Amino acid sequence: MMELVDIRVFAKISELMSLSAAANVLGMPKSSVSRSLTRLEKHLGVALLYRTNRKLALTDTGLLFAEDAHRILSSIEEVEQKVGQVRLAPRGLLRVSAPVTPGQWMLAPLISEYLVRYPEMNVALTLTSHKVEPMAEEIDVVIRTGELEDSRLAARRLGTVELKLVATPAYLKARGTPEVPADLVGHELLDIFAGNVEWRMDKGAETESVRVHMRFSANDTSTIRTVLLNGTGIGWLPDYLCEEDLATGTLIHVLPGWGRGKRDIHAVFPQHRTVSPKVRSFVDFLCERFGDPGKAAGPRPPGKSTPR
């Protein structure tokens, strides 16, 4: 099988008609150029050049092969340019998966910005409550919260999510504002867990556990937010879901300083030696936008809507 380097060497020799000149242009020793030519002629089984002490000349076969060699190298250069353009300008379909609520409230608005920045990209977003395995389900990027387990996957940390205990001013006025975690007993409480639940709460190095009963539970925090906004009780919401409500006074932060820890948000993708341009562009974009606390969450849906 012919080596591409031998074709390149012969093309340059046929262009300059000098081994020394070809070696100089290619940055190779003249002996290497000579060996490359000999190897090519041996592979083809024909002489490509007439050699004399004073000059080189192409044989008839050498003339034909030189034309083909230049055409081959031109095609390769064109392919390299196209590949380079794809590398620099991402294009095609990107398949993304995320948990339902973060996907609706945090990710979807940012994807709109991403599509404006990269007009050749298309995004297919899947929102699901189950754990997605990107390689098995042919997903390019998965957004995950919490600890990562699969070492076969590459990951970039985007930021953190913190749960906050909140209620409406009307509810707190009617039922009183808890001063310590133990005061939560007897209140109307909302969480993603049903029935009797142990709430473990931290404040610096201090930790308290309170056994409480849920008046309402749902497997979607945006639904819990909707019920909280109706003044039903006190419940936990991720910060991105209640920041604007807290800023406007629609919700009140209950037991500030007490929390349930922070959870990291990661962009996870299959681990390859070379990351595709579309995956790299999207993950880099998310890192950039999540790095801006004022913009990471993006626009919010209407006040009391209940996304599924």
TrEMBL record:
Species, as recorded: Cupriavidus yeoncheonensis
PROSITE patterns: HTH_LYSR
GO molecular function: DNA-binding transcription factor activity; sequence-specific DNA binding
A Pfam family this chain is assigned to: HTH_1
Family assignment from sequence similarity: Belongs to the LysR transcriptional regulatory family.
Gene: dmlR_15
The protein, known as: HTH-type transcriptional regulator DmlR
Phylogenetic placement of the source organism: Bacteria, Pseudomonadati, Pseudomonadota, Betaproteobacteria, Burkholderiales
Keywords: DNA-binding, Transcription, Transcription regulation
One record GO biological process: DNA-templated transcription
Signal peptide location: none
Domain HTH lysR-type: 2-59
